[in-house]
Structure formats: structure tokens, C-alpha cells
Amino acid sequence: MPIGRRVAYLRVRRRLSQQTFADRLGKSKSWVDKVERGVRSLERVSTIRDIAAVLRVDAATLLGHDEQPAELVDRNEGVARIRTALSAYEISPGRPPGRRPPMSPQRLDQELAHAWSTYQHARYPHLIELLPTLLTEVHRAPAQAPQACRAALVEAYRITAALLAKLGERSLAWLAADRAMSAATGDQLLVACAAVQLGQALPASSRARSVMLAAAYQAAPPDLDAGTPQELSLCGTLLLEAAMMAARSGDERATAGLLDEAAEMAARVGDGQDHHHTAFGPTTVELARTAAAIEAGDTRQAVTRHQKIIGYDGWRCLPVERRAAHLIDAARAYLHAGAPSAAARVLLQADHIAPAEVRHRPAGRDTVAQVARDPEAPTTITQLALTLGLLCP
């Protein structure tokens, strides 16, 4: 429903005549009539807030976005289904009559590839729908190809942990990552893959950093120049996880050292790679340097790095999810540097390329709310915050 018709509908429900409504707004009856007929548009956030206050509704309802809480409810219900799938196991080796056969290893690989692609394109609501079935299928995987099914189980837990960490479900993300580590036991490559998501789920601590470093150095080749891109990508990604843990703990010296180690490996891998779904390369290291600068409170360095990164060829090679996550980090840097307009601009860019990264990820929603509350924030970001129910009119 156009906003003008919505205003008219709500006004009638409040039993207000156009004249009475206009008087309470301090407008003319003609102005109200033009708004309700769609002849005059409502662009100023302050006017929308005034209308919402007179009609005794929130701005999200007035804008026609009152369904957003229902979307969040759907997300929570989807997370509950993932939790149920994580707790279910196929214990009996037999198959009850009438049940369809398990997926073949080849089909599982296809489904897992689709799940990773969905994640990297930041289509989180769709992935929430996919994962319960995928987890059920890997639990039912046939034993004819045990190594392939084992790798599929690790990958299913990895993608589950990655999504849950994005959605702020840290405890459940840790459970999925821990399951991945358990399933990978005995296979050095699979353990390193699982450790990447374990690092995303663990809170920053010296113990967690030690776990990441142990996994990184186990995955590292004896000679960097002789290492494969797959080995270097895994080791480098784990070093980045350890570096961010050090940054969050305030250990700037360790952070710098670990980032430099990762940069050496990234230079050998190059940009445009996605070995083991890490998207590791020189540009990824620069994203981590930017995030570390934000953690250290060096917003000037963070902004400078961001402005350089988006001009790199490697920037365009990154998955959509990675670019949008960085733009949210950049918005935080701009805001702390006293540039709310620039913060709003990069947030809107993130919302354009990956809406779920901004609208479903708690870090994205929190950043939108912080920027929108700045007195100098542009109306575009304020309206987005109102749409998401992050501001009261």
C-alpha cells in the first residue's frame, strides 16, 4: 500500500477528519489531501515521525515495514530447527520401510557446494531453510565411502557454524564447530578446515589464540615456497583468526606479527582464490588489518586502509559476504572518525549488495542504529533504521 493511502487508512481508523489531522500536524487540509492521494511525497524523516506520532503508530508501521519483526521471528524459528537437526543422529544401521535412501556422496557434495555459495552470497534466510535438511542428510550418509562422508559431515558442520556465528548465535556456533573438530579428528587437513570456524565461534582469549596457532602451524608446510595454495590458505586464515583474537585482547604487538606472517602466505597464494572456502589472499589480509586498526581505536588508519582496499582488483574478487562485512567495519571506522555521512554511505552500499548482512546480522543492525542516532546522519540511513525497527519515531 502506498504511504499516502496508509496515512488515510490509519487516519480514518483514528476517527480523525482531514482538517483535524491537519491541525494536529500544523499543516493545511490541502497538504493532507495531496499526501493521501499520492500527489505529494513524504521524504523528510521528521515529517514521517510527526505523522506517526499523531496516528499513534510507529514509523515502521507507517512506512509499511511492520512485517520486519515477523522476519526476525522466522529467523529464530529457523535457528531452532537447526538446533534440532544438530541434536539428531541416525543411530540404527538399518532403514525403516518406506524411508527414502540416503543421498549419495556425489549429491551431498553438490548440496554442500550450493550451501557454501548461498553463504558467500549472504543469502542467510535461504541458508537457514537449507541447513536442517542438509544436516539430516549428512547424518544419514551411507558408509560405502566413509572418507567422503566424513568430509561432508565436517563441511556441513563448518557451514552451519559460519552461519550461526554471523547471526550472533555464538553458543550454537561453537557446538557446530566443535562437532566439526570431532568429526575431523585424525585427518590433519579436515582438522585445519574445522578450526577456521572454531575460531569464528570462540571468544577472544589467550587460550583460544593458542588453539588457532596450534592448528595453523600444523597446517603450515615446512617450506613456504614449496607449500600448496590450499595449505597456505588454511594456515594463513587461521593466523588471521589468531590475529583478530589478539587485537580484541589489546595485544597490538602479537596482532602485527601474526598479520605479517599471514601476509607472507597471502602473497604466495594471490587474490581471487577460495581454497577450502577461505577466500584467502592479500586483500583478505588487508581487510583484517583494517578490522585490527578499528579494534585498536586507530580510526584514521582504518579509514585510509578501507579507501585503498576498495580500489584493489582483489576487492572485486571477494565473496559478497566478505565485502559487505568489511563495509560494516568501515562504517564503524567512519562513525568513530566523526564522519556519519560517509558511514551511512558505506552501510547503504552493504545493504545494496548483501541486504541480509545488514538486516539479519546483529553487527550490521547495531551499526545502522549507531549511525542513525548521530545528529548529523543523513535521512537515508535514518529511514533504513526506522524500516528495521531500530529507532523509535
Automatic annotation (TrEMBL):
Recorded GO MF terms: DNA binding; DNA-binding transcription factor activity
Listed CDD domains: HTH_XRE (cd00093)
HTH cro/C1-type domain: residues covered: 7-62
UniProt xrefs under Gene3D superfamilies: lambda repressor-like DNA-binding domains
Signal peptide: none
Keywords noted in UniProt: DNA-binding
Keyword field contains DNA-binding: yes
GO cellular component: cytosol
SUPFAM superfamilies from the UniProt entry: lambda repressor-like DNA-binding domains
Protein name in the entry: XRE family transcriptional regulator
Lineage of source species: Bacteria, Bacillati, Actinomycetota, Actinomycetes, Micromonosporales
